[in-house]
């Protein structure tokens, strides 16, 4: 994710932790009560902790451990043969160069979960012409939640220069209507 100027080193493994209000904003529009959720890039569980307040069960995995233990160490970008059977995948994935890791995360998430998939990505992520299969041409793409407040990736209130949004895919192909655009912020 673009949170610092390119002359600075990026965090190892793209560990940028998500302030709780960001996940709460998603859940206001897409509740996960009674769902089984997989957080596959769990980091230090800032997102998982908010999900656990509502979901029936939250399964955590990551390629690395930063303190909080995960249910498993799992490289989400490798074509593993097995994965947990869940009703939702929700995460803030690593973005990678040119957002390539983020695109792969979206593709694998949609393959591995036929229910709700919600990814926190940059606000223009859906503009790429290599991503039309995820958005314009994808009948599961249901909503984009534009975050009207900027996220502090340093968790100290200092915000970056990048806008972000939640991208949400749902279980059933959408009706013959366009996906919706919603708005959310720290307090609404
Ligand atoms: C942007 S952080 C998000 C952390 C957490 N979801 C949050 O929002 O607080 C990205 C996380 O992805 C993990 N990660 C990077 N590559 C991965 C991969 N191939 N498979 C699984 N996790 C990966 C990193 O270790 C890091 O914890």
Structure description:
Helix content is 16%, strand content 22%. It has 188 residues and is α/β, with parallel strands linked by helices. Strands 3-2-1-4-5-7-6-8 form an 8-stranded mixed beta sheet, with helices on both faces. Strand 1 (36-39), helix 2 (46-52) and strand 2 form a beta-alpha-beta unit. The chain binds S-adenosylmethionine (SAM). Residues 13-18, 40-43, 46-47, 62-64, 75-77, 91-94 line the site of S-adenosylmethionine.
Residue windows where pLDDT falls under 50 for at least 5 positions: 1-8
Which descriptor suits the 3D outline?
Answer: globular
- What's the SSE pattern? HEHEEEHEEEE
Give the percentage of residues in beta strands: 15-25%
Taking Cα atoms only, what radius of gyration do you get, to the nearest Å? 15 Å
Q: Could you say how many structural domains there are in total?
A: 1
Helix percent reads: 10-25%
As for the CATH topology, it is Rossmann fold
- How many alpha or pi helices? 3
Q: What is the end-to-end distance?
A: 24 Å
């Amino acid at each position: 994710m673009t949170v610092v100027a390119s002359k600075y080193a990026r965090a190892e493994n793209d560990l940028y932790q998500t302030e709780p209000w960001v996940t709460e904003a998603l859940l206001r529009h897409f509740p996960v009560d009674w769902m089984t959720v997989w957080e596959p890039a769990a980091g230090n569980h800032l997102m998982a902790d908010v999900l656990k307040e509502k979901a029936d069960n939250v399964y955590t995995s990551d390629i690395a451990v930063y303190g909080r233990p995960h249910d498993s160490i799992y490289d989400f970008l490798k074509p593993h043969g097995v994965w947990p059977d869940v009703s939702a995948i929700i995460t803030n994935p690593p973005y990678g160069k040119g957002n390539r890791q983020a695109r792969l995360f979206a593709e694998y998430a949609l393959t591995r979960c036929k229910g709700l998939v919600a990814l926190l990505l940059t606000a223009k992520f859906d503009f790429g012409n290599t991503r039309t299969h995820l958005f314009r041409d994808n009948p599961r793409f249901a909503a984009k939640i534009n975050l009207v407040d900027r996220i502090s990736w340093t968790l100290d209130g200092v915000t970056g220069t990048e806008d972000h949004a939640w991208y949400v895919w749902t279980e059933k192909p959408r009706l013959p209507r366009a996906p919706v655009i919603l708005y959310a912020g720290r307090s609404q």
